[in-house]
Structure to design on (1306 residues):
């Protein structure tokens, strides 16, 4: 197994799919010589030329729609939005067009479109360049939402997303781009819609996404020293949401914590907790279910404020201790 | 030059659209329609002239006021009426209704209810054609109101810089809902907006089906030969209200009457009669033929079954399990 | 007390505020002679003239921003978006500007902006004109979200929204526009952030918003005949979400159902259930908590399909019976 | 005509911006900055010429590359550096950073990191001024990249139809990040886009502070007298990279060197010396003075306290309880 970075894994997935399938192309701002704001597509222009690494003017609203139109015609566009925060401009094409065209036309059309966008805080880029947008389009049927957490699943999920016949919002995390991880030489896929048990444990189930998976793993190490055994389930796909694995896990651990970077209110945690509350796993609970989400604030610029705005390793540790301890409403 | 047969075919298509719209309105009045509709009565010359000017293998994108586009492109009237009545036999199995009629087989990539949103989709389709080295073109219909949406400008810019095979055809019917184009477009013509991108911008009489035909023909040639897009503004008028709930408070009867004198069907028929291409009785026969087609299609639609409410979840995802 | 419609109540709130405060104005598409797509502002042009009933070109993205700019300058704009579905175009100005400008500038500015938009299905307008968007911006700190359910609270809440110094998304329901209700002669307010106990009961708490409040009331009548006593809490304000009243109610009824029109997944129900799961009301539950939301589909055109896509009175009745009955996982 | 004092003041402001940017870069290199920054070195003539041409009671909106705008508007350098270093004494109490510096008291309505998004906000401010019968104008800065965003066109249209007191000032520094303006703007000038709306569109040498001054002055008069907006394109060049992570792969050293010959500060200083308005030693003194100001401001910033992480929730809502 090789070690490559998350960024390289994403690039590899794109390169391999583009070699294999002429219909796949990448479009977005500054993805050519510049390699994109985070260097994800660095070098690809050379191999694929300016029509398959198609640089766009700053016109996110329309070029997302261009992706939709190309997808309707049988292409498999990958649209890069430089920062996930700018998906506000893509919103209409994503929400009202890509997500609905198939349904509205009675199944006449497929929209094999991938929208890739880096999200998340930690780079000091402040409120408009740091949001975790996982939950923004969670309420929109017709799209899929994928959040890879390491190089292995990033590559495997992106290939699955490109091969998927539905619009897929593929949310990368800026802080993960340079993280390394093992990856097979051979071609492989990580299927959409399948959460991953990152680590088994007995006392509590922590559901995570993206960067929070790393932080939960670190927290779990510490907690195990204290005798608290943690099971970590990395969602990978947020939509469609598959909670079977979580239910099974909760039946074993009897406790649930959902950790996510996005703002607490209206974030993904509510949905997961509600699903468990509605399932028979509910009967197995030994403790109330809890969430640890980002604070309900725009992401601030100052480093310490920024850290305080989203869950850190020590916050996870504290929250788990609190849940396991038992006097929740003291 | 258009042959006599072609001209008659154009006239017949216009009649067909007119008859469809009038029938649609009647069905609506009879309370058979749950929803809204946007009729294109008065504007028939544009879809007919434009779609006759392109090949059947070329693509179009449509709008909320899209019945005429679909009919001109060869749409199946049965499926159209059935969709309008929300039937399972409709184009969209009753999911879409009047505003979302599409026929990908006929290369009508569909209508969107979000004004302006179809424009970048058309640009994307044109991009795909260019990437695939196809020689087809995309004809994008949109209204004067849509020409104020940011995506219109963004798309026109992209189509220009990439020299895409696309025709931007603005159906300027003088109003966006109740808003007169003069209030919100500060230049004399919407086609003036082409100058921002250095491409041809042409304003024509949208009541004149031949003018539409010729202008779109030239634009299609330009597009097909790799020279890029053209912005065409066809000036026309909507004889009916904007949608079901329109009280026409924003315009005068006189204005409507003035425009009705330019009715694209009667003026074209008169022209054809003048040059001896059409006799009054032929015209009457044509109308009767059209009415018969409409009646048959409506009957099909009325007799068709409703979709089963249990299938409401069908068609959300392309990879859903068959149910 | 007079009886007026929901639509008239909204109009009255605007008229009275505009008479009282020169800084208040309405802007949007076709709001003049046409009175807006639903006639809400019918007649207002005559009294206030074209600069205070400011008709805009079809440029939602920018004119929402124009509202933000005017609000920064001390005006109190009410921006009407003709259908809530088109908020996709307003998204950037709402999410990245209005919601964040105060925070990003360290509290230098206030954004007293109201965005009014009609939402909801039932009119046969299909997928792009029928969405319930309550949950779309639930994850965005810095804005408030208000959903009036009757003429009384529509008027009182809209006045509070106009007087609020924050961006408020005010979501009206198309099916409610012509519903009548009693309203005081005198000036009054309904405060933001305060859910309303629509009806007291003992066996189950139903949390509702907007049109679902009506349906829950009808369902409750039927259920009472069967001996099931229902408490209905109408949220009114979705954000900031105040769950105190719900917690208290659940402690009394021991059961919770959240009913909402928006798509189930990622809808408002998850958040409410999670809040209760995290609170000590959790300890009082005699049944799992459940949600009844819209199906995860774009809204279809056909009347029967459309009905099937969102909760109806009979669905609420069935769900309550199911919860009260007790064999949830049979 | 500008007096000698005014011209010297303009030169000094340009020097101040240059010194601020160079210092900012140094602080960045010293790892004192958590975040990114966009430097305006080479572009100083535009904010200085433009802001000298309007009144102090007029308004501006700024961009991600906004230090120069703020300084030209009279910004407090201490608060600017403090904000840049994320300190509690900064303009935004460390919440905003380089990209979000604003001073509503000075009538800089702020910078947005979302390219183009400041343009409609400026238009809204201009609308408010019109509604309030004020005689102030709004000067909206934006880049060549922003001129491809839909909201630019939508805003220009609204400002035109409402005849708003607004100046659209495009700082065309030849690139949007790595994208050469030539690739994405199909006409010779961005100011050509004014023709879509029938308003004046003017392209000028953005390296010439006097040209900027005069053009904006005329546009401000036009705006103030109720005639509506003007679109000005000031052609300039960014001497530094786009942001911290720029490797300059998209342009040649020769191109950069060529533009550096047009440095707005050295060329203006040379002109002033030529006409006898400036002596070399005065120029040196001016630089020293500027450097002293900068050093003092940086010291203030470095010595300032960080915001307390416990206050992270402060400033979200206007009606929050004081904490
Ligand atoms: C983005 C958006 N804004 C507003 C509407 C509501 N609406 C539907 S049609 C229409 C007028 C469109 O005018 P135009 O483009 O001229 O087309 P026409 O109806 O005249 O054919 C409006 C305002 C919409 N559907 N989409
Ligand atoms: C809507 C949006 N898209 C993309 C970006 C990323 N980005 C930041 S600055 C920039 C280039 C802007 O170019 P221009 O408007 O010419 O301003 P300049 O940086 O040259 O001053 C880009 C692409 C952004 N901040 N906002
Ligand atoms: Mg129109
Ligand atoms: Mg630039």
């Amino acid at each position: 197994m090789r070690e490559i970075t998350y960024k390289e894994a994403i690039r590899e997935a794109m390169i391999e799919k583009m070699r294999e399938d002429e219909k796949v192309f990448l479009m977005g701002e500054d993805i050519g010589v510049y390699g994109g704001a985070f260097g994800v597509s660095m070098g690809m222009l050379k191999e694929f030329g300016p029509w398959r690494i198609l640089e766009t003017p700053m016109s996110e609203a329309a070029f997302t729609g261009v992706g939709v139109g190309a997808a309707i015609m049988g292409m498999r566009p990958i649209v890069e939005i430089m920062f996930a925060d700018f998906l506000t401009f893509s919103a209409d094409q994503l929400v009202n067009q890509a997500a609905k065209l198939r349904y509205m036309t009675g199944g006449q059309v497929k929209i094999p479109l991938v929208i890739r966008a880096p999200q998340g805080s930690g780079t000091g880029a402040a409120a408009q360049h740091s949001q975790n947008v996982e939950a923004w389009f969670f309420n929109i049927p017709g799209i899929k939402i994928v959040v890879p957490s390491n190089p292995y699943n990033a590559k495997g999920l992106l290939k699955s997303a490109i091969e998927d016949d539905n619009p897929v919002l593929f949310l990368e995390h800026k802080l993960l781009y340079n993280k390394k991880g093992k990856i097979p030489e051979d071609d492989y896929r990580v299927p959409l819609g399948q959460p991953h048990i990152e680590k088994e444990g007995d006392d509590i189930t922590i559901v995570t996404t993206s960067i929070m998976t790393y932080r939960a793993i670190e927290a779990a190490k510490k907690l195990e020293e204290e005798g608290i055994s943690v099971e970590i389930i990395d969602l990978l796909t947020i939509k469609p949401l598959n909670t079977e694995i979580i239910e099974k896990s909760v039946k074993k651990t009897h406790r649930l914590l959902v950790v996510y970077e996005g703002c607490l209110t209206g974030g993904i945690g509510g949905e997961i907790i509600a699903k468990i509350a509605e399932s028979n796993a509910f009967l197995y609970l030994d403790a109330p279910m809890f969430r640890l989400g980002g604070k309900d604030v725009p992401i601030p610029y100052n480093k310490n404020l920024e850290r305080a705005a989203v869950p850190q390793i020590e916050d996870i540790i504290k929250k788990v201790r609190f849940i396991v301890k038992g006097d929740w409403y003291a | 030059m258009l042959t006599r047969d072609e001209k008659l075919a154009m006239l017949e298509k216009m009649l067909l659209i007119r008859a469809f719209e009038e029938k649609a309105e009647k069905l609506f009045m009879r309370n058979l329609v749950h929803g809204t509709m946007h009729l294109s009565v008065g504007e028939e010359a544009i879809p007919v002239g434009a779609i006759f000017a392109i090949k059947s293998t070329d693509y179009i994108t449509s709008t909320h006021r899209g019945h005429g586009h679909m009919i001109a492109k060869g749409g199946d009237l049965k499926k159209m009426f059935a969709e309008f009545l929300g039937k399972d036999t409709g184009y969209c199995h009753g999911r879409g209704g009047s505003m979302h009629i599409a026929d990908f087989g006929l290369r009508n990539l569909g209508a969107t209810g979000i004004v302006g949103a179809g424009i970048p989709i058309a640009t994307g389709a044109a991009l795909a054609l260019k990437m695939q080295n196809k020689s087809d073109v995309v004809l994008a219909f949109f209204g004067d109101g849509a020409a104020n949406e940011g995506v219109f400008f963004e798309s026109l810019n992209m189509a220009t810089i990439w020299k895409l095979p696309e025709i931007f055809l603005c159906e300027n019917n003088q109003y966006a809902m109740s808003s007169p184009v003069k209030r919100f477009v500060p230049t004399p013509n919407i086609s003036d907006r082409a100058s921002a991108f250095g491409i041809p911008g042409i304003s024509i009489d949208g009541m004149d089906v031949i003018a539409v035909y010729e202008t779109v023909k030239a634009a299609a040639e330009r597009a097909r030969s790799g020279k890029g897009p053209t912005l065409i503004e066809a000036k026309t008028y909507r004889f009916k209200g904007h949608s079901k709930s329109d009280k026409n408070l924003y315009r005068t009867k006189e204005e409507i009457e003035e425009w009705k004198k330019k009715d694209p069907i009667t003026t074209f028929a008169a022209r054809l009669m003048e040059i001896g291409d059409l006799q009054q009785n032929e015209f009457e026969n044509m109308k009767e033929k059209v009415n018969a087609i409409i009646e048959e299609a409506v009957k099909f639609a009325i007799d068709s079954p409703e979709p089963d409410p249990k299938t409401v979840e069908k068609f959300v995802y392309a990879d859903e399990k068959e149910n």
